[in-house]
Amino acid sequence: MNQIPKWVDHYTDEKNRTILTEAQLQIPGLRMLGHHVSTNATESLSWHIHENAFEFSLPSKGAFSFSTAEGSFSFSGGQVFLSRPNEVHGTNEVPITVGELYWFQLDTSSKDRLLFLNPQAASALIRELHSISRHVVKTDAKKTLPLLRQAFEMAAHGQNRYLVASLLQLFLHLVILFSRKETGSPSPDIQKSLARIQAHLTQDLPLEELASAAGLSCSQFKQKFKKQMGVAPRSYINQQKIEYAKMLLKEGRSVTETAMALSFTTSNYFSTVFKKYTTYTPREYQRQSYFSGHLASPAPSSDSPTVSRASPISRTISQTERKFTV
Question: I want to staple 282 with a disulfide (CB 3.0 to 4.6 A). Which of 85, 87, 221, 255 is the partner?
Fold first, then answer.
């Protein structure tokens, strides 16, 4: 019987993915720092842990969904998802969606020069991080994203590691500060557009009509929607339509029926959009759903003796040695 895998990252320098590890970073406690860009959905992440390390993930584009034993958590612009040391997490068979993400792991097993801090400051930081009760913390993206982006860019170019550590310190203290505030909700005009989308999901949903319902010009609506939701309105609509399409396909509807029911112009275009957000074609999804019995795997506990069942495209870490983790 296998234990839940302890994730180990490896240095990666690819067009859409960069992972810097301890060998490149040379910053005490900073296990890795990464940047990922995806224009199509990628494979799901199987259940795993980061030994003695927090992991912080912040999208700069798109919306993501990760899971722990406590449930599934969606997060987008300005929202930071954190997993705690040795906490089992993954994407619960959900592919990693389209978007851009910065993330890093912080080993808090030792306060010795953590991020170049003295022991007293390191102990205080560790204590504050453990006090965060939520997995998703709503922050001001204008304040947090530039810090993480600059830290990554400087580290990627081998620049001042002390300044990189200072940027990450400030980022963490802002996350702690924002964690003590109530999570904000969309403004009333954007809430109106969200309600309209859900009520008319099977229709075409022109952005001009949604903007009018919100009392905004189309350009104002698109800008405000993306700022608050972390994703462009058309991308959000497509994501919601694909979620509804999954239900129809599981019920046995044909690809053409499903495409027409959701007002896609052609079944080919529907299939293209479906694969972009799920990594499957609609027919592949139907077959996968049939053989999996329509069930998703619950998150195992960290001392579970076995690795949770994964989807056909989600292999164990030891089998694939995937280098992207969130």
Answer: 255
